[in-house]
Amino acid sequence: LIIDEVHLLADERGAVIESVVARLHRLVESSHRQVRIVGLSATLPNYKDVASFLKVHPSRGLFFFGPEDRPVPLQQTFVGVTSVKDRFRREQKMNDVCYEVVSDSLRRGYQVMVFVHSRKGTGETARALTERAMKEGSLESLFITQGTERNGDVYTRYAERASKSRNKELTEHFYNGLGIHHAGMLRNDRNLSEQMFGDGAIKVLCCTATLAWGINLPAHTVVVKGTEVYNPEKGGAVDLSILDVQQIFDSAGCPQFDTSGEATLITSHDSLAPYLDKLIKAVPIESNFVKQLAGHLNAEVACRSCCICSET
């Protein structure tokens, strides 16, 4: 049994994992059959407690890899924007912080990926960065890849392809040194954005979190702008999961491209604490089984795994 992301034990669905593990342990004891359980997690501070629950041998079966084992050192920065009720003003503040991080990285010669959480947000963020750069007079010097630069010939080579794209936003942002990427784009346009960023024809890529899963791009710096994600099942916004943040952060500083990486999370001040707890302070995860004890106990009765004293 392989349990990936075993830290979800602390999630509202964690009780299901505990129930499955408990049943498996009971099966092993009753049938005397050996079963191997493998638990995996990238964010598990109290790994020894979880190992004890899984009945892992502490010296032979428990493996811990800390930050020192990461092939590329990663610098993490967390920024909390003062909460304001006006959504437009809050977004503007996040864009200002995002611009400072992006421009600082560009001055040092690095590319940047900015992760947002809606398809519309990719274009809006790229436009906000462009407007701020024009206001600061840094659009040509920092964002636009010049013909005299190392990647100038690459820029020229992609210019014709970008101009022929049916996605007007892609064409618009390309000439400002930026790109967009989300699942709503045509496959050819998504591939074009990936190729342009990978070859250095554009310096900044505004994208959704789907790009962090399974696509390896040479980004020294990644920025997570905002942590509110719309959840259709709940009919409103929920916080971006720790797993998604971890996956995005891991996109910074790929071993084959960089010797270091930088990751920045920008969110409201009120939403900052949970991410600091899980990613920095290493707050232990706790079981949520007691909250669903009645349901799982009834399931055991229905499966005849347990019975009342008069039936024994």
Major sheet description: 6 strands, parallel
Give the averaged pLDDT, no decimals: 86
Specify Rg, calculated over alpha carbons.
24 Å
**Estimated structural class:** alpha/beta
Spatial separation of the terminal alpha carbons: 32 Å
Q: What percent strand?
A: 15-25%
Q: What strand line-up does the widest sheet have?
A: 3-10-7-4-6-5
Explain what this protein looks like in three dimensions.
The chain contains 11 helices and 10 strands. It has helices at residues 14-31, 47-53, 87-107, 119-136, 139-143, 152-163, 168-174, 187-199, 242-249, 269-279, 293-302, and strands at 2-3, 38-39, 74-81, 112-116, 178-181, 204-208, 221-225, 228-231, 236-239, 261-268. Helix content is 42%, strand content 15%. Helix 8 (187-199) links the parallel strand 5 (178-181) and strand 6 (204-208). A 6-stranded parallel β-sheet has the order 3-10-7-4-6-5, with helices on both faces. Strands 1-2 form a two-stranded parallel ribbon. The longest helix is centred in the first third of the chain and has 21 residues, at 87-107. The radius of gyration is 24 Å and the shape is elongated. Helix 3 (87-107) packs across helix 4. The chain is of the alpha/beta class and 312 residues long.
